[in-house]
Specification:
3 strands; single chain; three-stranded antiparallel beta sheet; alpha+beta; 29% strand
Length: 59
């Protein structure tokens, strides 16, 4: 998995609309119609899969 990046203002607004706290998530992919985010806490855990979510962007 690629390294997650800090979300931009637009991405933060999408996360808030989906019920996520932007401070707890990193952006992995921004495909325009879809936003892939990963939990910061799951990346710190040793072993196991990171928690990945796909958010749909509503224009």
């Amino acid at each position: 998995m690629k390294n997650g990046k800090k979300p931009t203002l637009r991405q933060k607004q999408i996360m808030k609309a989906s019920g996520l706290a932007p401070a707890d998530w990193l952006v992995v992919k921004d495909l325009g119609s879809e936003l892939h985010v990963v939990s910061r806490m799951s990346l710190k855990k040793i072993g196991g899969k990171p928690k990945l979510r796909k958010l749909e962007v509503i224009a």
